[in-house]
Design brief:
Elements: E1 16-22, E2 28-34, H1 36-39, E3 44-49, H2 50-55, E4 95-96, E5 102-108, H3 111-120, E6 122-127, H4 134-138, E7 153-160, H5 162-170, E8 174-185, E9 194-200, E10 205-210, H6 215-227, E11 234-238, H7 253-265, E12 269-272, H8 275-281, E13 285-296, E14 302-314, H9 321-328, E15 338-347, H10 361-379, H11 383-390, E16 399-400, E17 406-407, H12 412-422, H13 428-437, E18 441-450, E19 458-465, E20 471-475, H14 484-496, E21 503-506, H15 524-551, E22 559-561, E23 564-566, E24 572-574, H16 575-584, E25 597-603, E26 611-620, E27 627-637, H17 644-664, E28 696-700, H18 719-733, H19 748-762
Parallel strand pairs: 1-12, 10-11, 14-15, 20-21, 27-28
Antiparallel strand pairs: 1-5, 2-4, 2-6, 3-5, 7-15, 8-13, 9-10, 9-12, 13-14, 16-17, 18-26, 19-20, 19-25, 22-23, 23-24, 26-27
Helix pairs in contact: 9-10, 10-18, 14-15, 15-16, 17-18
């Protein structure tokens, strides 16, 4: 509606501008930095380096990568192995480790002056060898990103029962193997990263203004730790967020640098990234190499699953979550009694990777769904019947999978049957024939999925009935398009039986928000609904006690309905009358005086397990390799649909995100030079409106037994199955040529080449 205020819209009076000087090398020692020419330019206020940051006591960014934690599977470390967590400083003192890492910051009166000065900052580098791919980084003799980290291994672990899995494979009638790479992508939000930093010398207080899925509370905490100052000396204020997708859930160096620079220069400092900077320095995502094997008996029953997942961390350990969650979900919704996987998290000379919508789960689902289709093709099974035979039945719930993650509840077969029916799976043969008449190859795929969502377990909701006719709702999440300002007040409106318009939603300012974990891993509605439910209970309990005093009736007789408290003999008072009485009546007990409020502060470590099934059809032009998605049907179980319109919108966006990776998007580093070769939208292809047709999305509502209101997360479902689903559909379309696999992204060139290679193989 044009009413948003995004980070780049914030321009405090008298502010100045910052520009970052970034390394052109993937790995180098910083011998010296000469700022004299830059400082001589008119309009330049300061040029700050890692040495300045060290003098002022800026510490490492506390990423807290969390390599263990419920409800995920337990990761076992090998004997004598220590997890290696890097020290990511806001500005490096002596070494750069990826192309685009900031080495200095110019502060000037204008962006133009800062850019001119940045060109004159002379950095003397001693270039070092670099490595790009995770498997290559583990090889003997590979360059070490961090000298103290042997084999570049920040984490190595395993899950499941290795001996039992090996026995299952020894007894198998069929074994299929798949070596896959879920390539690297970036989030590409509409608004590039932007930060405003302020400092008030009167109270020694720093203010950070930006947008991050970590939320204001966690961002404030990390700002304080990085600056080395007490928490009360920091404030975080976020406006609207022009996109996140997970890659903005971590703390970026600029979040600390702008408030620090504001103190240095005595003015507010603003920085807005260029799109090229975003490609270079935004936290990136995915980049998992996985080799896996599936064991089956003669009838197609799954016996075992084993493999190795190797995650590329980039230059710093920002998150281990994608590796951890993927290892928890490798068997998806299928009964596989024996599973064993090894996991490696590897450091390389590339931009750090972080979480990205459904972190780790699309990778896992890609592997298992490709394995199932490969098994069906190699050994003569019907791919739908093979899936149906091995789905976990609802009667087995709760179900603990072979690596220790316990699924709460669900009807997986119903989801798949619904998707197949809605997609008219049985009518596909006729549609394929019609496509063939036009010279096109038509294919169809199906993919089932499940997620494990957890995240920061604590959340708080605060309610206050205000004398201006509104009820304030304060929570600590951060909306980046999920519609929190709609769905959270909607819950409150329903529970308090008041008009939606009477709810004033407040978030994103640590002067108002004391507790909150931000938005990630499908935690927002799942946890806020619990905290808000408790806040409503407390508010109503306090309100009934006050109403009993006003109406001179026994507390047990007071009822709340239609937004008011009523006594059996007649008489009622609404929420605002009760709040006024609480503020003005001297006769009330002290514990009820002061206003009508309620709070819910919860810590909930139970996981959320959304699941579903998607079907898509594609047409492939065999002469060009061009792929058209001609139909997509998605069934997602959200437990309880609080706002179906938002959920359908989330499903559409999630599908598009998965489609983008499967068909178009790829962050590509040259393996020899470690230079980024996809640093603009000229080289990094994004999905457009014509990439995908209208989507048919179906919401299932099987209550989640792990949640008091039955809610499951609903924002990641379309992304999770999309990668495996699309490749399965494309391979099905090309089955007449004998194509068995197409690597992602399935660009026209790769699809065409797969056809040519299959033809050559037949010859």
């Amino acid at each position: 509606m044009g009413q948003g205020q995004f980070s780049a819209d914030i321009s405090p009076a008298g502010h100045c501008h910052a520009v970052m000087v970034r390394s052109p090398y993937p790995h180098a020692k910083i011998r010296a930095i000469d700022i004299s020419q830059a400082m001589a330019l008119p309009g330049v206020i300061a040029v700050l380096t890692g040495a300045d940051a060290a003098v002022d006591g800026l510490g490492p960014i506390p990423h807290n990568p969390d390599w263990v934690g419920p409800p995920d599977a337990t990761l076992r470390l090998p004997p004598d192995f220590d997890v290696y967590v890097t020290e990511n400083t806001a500005l490096p003192l002596d070494t750069v480790r990826y192309v685009g890492e900031a080495v200095a910051m110019v502060v000037a009166e204008t962006v133009a002056a800062a850019n001119d000065a940045a060109e004159l900052v002379d950095v003397d580098y001693d270039v070092l060898p670099a490595v790009v791919h995770a498997r290559a980084a583990m090889a003997p003799g590979a360059p070490l990103v961090w000298p103290a980290c042997s084999e570049n291994l920040a984490l190595t672990c395993d899950v499941g029962d290795e001996e039992a899995t090996e026995r299952a494979f020894a007894n198998a009638a069929h074994i299929v193997k798949f070596d896959g790479w879920i390539h690297r992508v970036t989030g590409s939000p509409m608004e590039p990263r932007a930060v405003v930093g302020e400092y008030d010398p009167t109270d020694g207080r720093y203010t950070l203004r930006t947008g991050s899925g970590a939320g204001v509370v966690r961002s404030r905490e990390r700002l304080a730790v990085t600056l080395g100052v007490p928490m009360e000396n920091c404030r975080a204020v976020f406006g609207d967020m022009g996109g996140n997708f997970g890659t903005r859930n971590a703390f970026f160096p600029e979040y600390a640098l702008m408030p620090w620079a504001a103190k240095r220069v005595g003015r507010a400092v603003k920085w807005t990234a260029t799109r090229q900077e975003c490609f270079l320095s935004d936290y990136q995502a995915r980049d998992l190499a996985s080799v896996a094997e599936l064991a089956l008996d003669e009838d197609g029953n799954f016996l075992g699953l084993r493999g190795v997942n190797t995650m590329n961390l980039g230059a710093y350990t920002v998150f281990f979550w994608p590796l951890r969650k993927g290892l928890s979900m490798m068997q998806s919704v299928y009964r596989i009694p024996h599973v064993h996987f090894k996991g490696h998290a590897v450091l390389t000379n590339t931009a750090p990777t972080a979480v990205y919508r459904s972190a780790g789960r699309p990778e896992a689902i890609y592997m298992i769904e490709r394995l199932i289709d490969l098994a069906a093709d190699a050994h003569g099974f019907d791919r739908v019947k093979l899936r149906r035979r091995n789905l976990i039945p609802s009667t087995a719930m709760p179900y603990t999978n072979a690596v220790g993650a316990t699924y709460d509840s669900g009807e997986y077969e119903t989801a798949m049957d619904t998707a197949l029916d809605e997609a008219d799976w049985n009518g596909f043969t006729a549609r394929r024939a019609a496509s063939a008449e036009r010279g096109l190859c038509r294919g169809v795929g199906v993919a089932n999925y499940i997620e494990i969502t957890s995240g920061i377990p604590r959340e708080r909701a605060e309610l206050k009935v205000c004398d201006d006719g509104f009820i304030e709702l304060v929570v600590g999440t951060m909306s980046s398009g999920q519609g929190h300002e709609t769905s959270f007040p909607q819950l409150l409106s329903d529970w308090l039986q008041i008009p939606f318009e009477k709810v004033r939603y407040i978030a994103n300012d640590t002067d108002r928000v004391s507790v909150g974990g931000g938005s990630h891993s499908g935690r927002s509605m799942r946890l806020v609904s619990i905290a808000l439910g408790e806040a409503v209970e407390e508010l109503l309990a306090n309100g009934k006690a006050i109403a009993a005093h006003i109406l001179q009736a026994p507390l047990a007789d007071i009822v709340f309905e239609d937004g008011a408290f009523a006594a059996p003999g007649g008489g009622s008072v609404d929420l605002w009358a009760v709040a006024k009485a609480a503020a003005t009546l001297d006769s009330l007990p002290d514990k009820l005086r002061g206003g009508l409020e309620g709070a819910g502060d919860i810590t909930n470590r139970a996981g959320g397990y959304p699941y579903g099934s998607h079907v898509c059809e594609v047409e492939v032009d065999p002469d060009t390799g061009h792929v058209d998605i001609v139909a997509w049907t998605g069934v997602d179980d959200v437990g309880l649909a609080v706002n179906p319109a938002i959920l359908h919108g989330q499903a559409h966006g999630a599908v598009m995100q998965g489609v983008g990776q499967a068909l178009l998007e790829e962050i590509h580093y040259d393996p020899d030079s470690a230079q980024l070769l996809s640093g603009s939208f000229m080289d990094y292809a994004m999905p457009r409106a014509f990439t995908i047709p209208n989507l048919k999305t179906v919401i299932m509502e099987v209550p989640a037994s792990s949640h008091p209101h039955g809610i499951r997360p609903g924002g990641e479902g379309g992304t999770t199955p999309a990668l495996g689903l699309l490749i399965n559909a494309i391979v099905d379309a090309l089955s007449e040529f004998g194509v068995k696999h197409v690597a992602m992204p399935a660009t026209p060139q790769r699809v065409w080449q797969a056809i040519q290679d299959a033809k050559d193989h037949r010859l």
